[in-house]
Amino acid sequence: MSFNKFLLLTAAFAPLLFFPSCRRTPQERPPIRRLAVLPFEDHSVRASHAWLARLLPFSLGRQLAGAPGLQVVEARSSASLPDATHELSGFFLARDGALEAHLFLYDLPSHKLARHQVLSAPAAGWRDLLVSSARFLSSALVSGAQLQPLGVTQESAARRLAEALSANSVQLAEDAFRAASEADPACGWCWLGWAETAARRGGRDAALSALAAAEKHRASLDPLSQHNLALLAANLNADSRAAAAALEKIAAAAPSDPLAQARLAESLVALREYSKAVRYYRRAIDLDPRAAAFWNSLAYAEAWQGRFDDALKAVARYAELDASANPADSRGEILMMAGRFPEAFQAFDESYRKDPMFNNGAALEKAALCWLLQGDSRRTAETLARLIEDRARAGDRTVELRRARWEWLTGQSALARERFSRLAREASHPLAPIASSMLALRLSASDPSAAAAILRTLAPARDPMYQLYSLYAASGANPSLIDPLRDERLRGELNALSLTLRGDWPRAAAAWNTVLERSPGGSDGPYHELLAFCLARAGNIEQAAAALGASWPLLHQGQMEFYDFLVYPNLLFTRAEIARAQGRMDEARRLYDAFLQFAGDRADLAQQAARARAAARL
């Protein structure tokens, strides 16, 4: 399974930051130092400097961002940061008109005291203590590292910033961040906090308002804060190119930060700039070779550009660093993309045997899909029977939905229709509305009046998930419900789906092409397939071949539930048509035959079955 599902880490704030954990393996290069900064205490009379004790751990992470070979994370204890190599703790003390910071740096896992330092400054010298503390860590762990600028200069703002960091609600945090920003308009950390918490509490408009206020003071903010504000704005505006531009500046400002390089790579994947993404994943790996997730992401970036051998090498290294079921699952997905279905089955089976509960058994469902793509109906049925039995034993409430979906995929639409209907009639079952929507969607092309009747029985959905299912279902039976949608991307996708279900192939192809242009790379598998299918049905075989390339699709679970009945086994028919047009008749016959293995009693969406039967006799 890819870790790039959905995609950018926009949280430029919050307790700093999100470093992946991985097992240690011997490396020739110096290992990454991972520092857990524990909460500081205030030993001053009447806790007069509790605000400074709260601010110090946060400021250390900000000042040391991008320091070569060092990751700094605030933590309640070192145990909460897997693979931590060092721990910092300490306290503040105000006495005799001076401030003292007592710092204790420990080696881990021995917990042996490595360095102890007492820093002193005049009572008003809190800024000097924050900077000196960062220099102490730099000299101890990464000598010569250049510190990032201190992001706050006014004490009133620093106090409000500490208050925001300690707040027990998003509303209180937003109010304190806003007050800190107003007290010190040059405080980039404060503006970031305000914009981030506004996004979490009030949504897009509130966050954009905070960003607009910050923009007036942009020139006075530290560079990293400027870039992170630009990133947040880009993500709120769904502007993937602006997001990549901001991440490129962040990566340049922190060239020794492996996570900054990996986040940039993720944004380039979204833009389908896969070769450039590979370069930045490799930079991240050079900086932190033990970060298992980087190797996994590199493998997918290689696979998405058709470099399957390089992808398998990367995923093999990933497997050396991660003992979970995911490396075998990733290997299976890459082999499936490469069209090596028996090998992919073995990888998925390995993943499932290692952990049957991983992703609710999705590995075994993908294993069944491998046999479908291979055109082996017997092994498909055997694998599905194993999946259904195991999931039922595990108490999976979705098992009947899975069974019905797969009955439809394998040409048993009458059985599937009855199973969907039976589940939909169980009014108390939480999945009943989803079963109704799934059935209506699958009937839209062949029996639109039945689909419309099912939709009329659905009560208005309040749950966002139920609303989404009902919208997909309505796209075929009642397309007028699509028009009022404010989400432009979803409206375009549902319009393309509606045109496909109605057999308007030229317009559907144009609509899917637009969907593809607006979709992030790495999550566009069904859209390529549906574009190619519609192009082929419209007679544009050459364009269909170009839309598919040399890869087979990956659909994540949500896409499977909405698109599986259109993608499978139709993708076999589409490839058969392309092979036939290109004169590869043996391959065409094999693909037509594989398609017919699963056509069954399904409604013939585009008179494919008769054409496939005729072609298979050529």
List the helices and strands and how they pair.
Elements: E1 33-37, E2 41-42, H1 50-63, E3 70-74, E4 86-95, E5 98-107, E6 112-122, H2 126-141, H3 155-166, H4 170-183, H5 188-202, H6 204-215, H7 223-236, H8 240-253, H9 258-270, H10 274-287, H11 292-303, H12 308-321, H13 326-337, H14 341-354, H15 362-374, H16 377-393, H17 399-409, H18 413-424, H19 432-443, H20 448-457, H21 464-477, H22 488-501, H23 505-518, H24 525-537, H25 541-548, H26 557-567, H27 570-581, H28 585-597, H29 608-616
Helix pairs in contact: 1-2, 1-3, 3-4, 4-5, 5-6, 5-7, 7-8, 8-9, 9-10, 10-11, 11-12, 11-13, 12-13, 13-14, 13-15, 14-15, 15-16, 16-17, 17-18, 18-19, 19-20, 19-21, 20-21, 21-22, 22-23, 23-24, 24-25, 24-27, 25-27, 27-28, 28-29
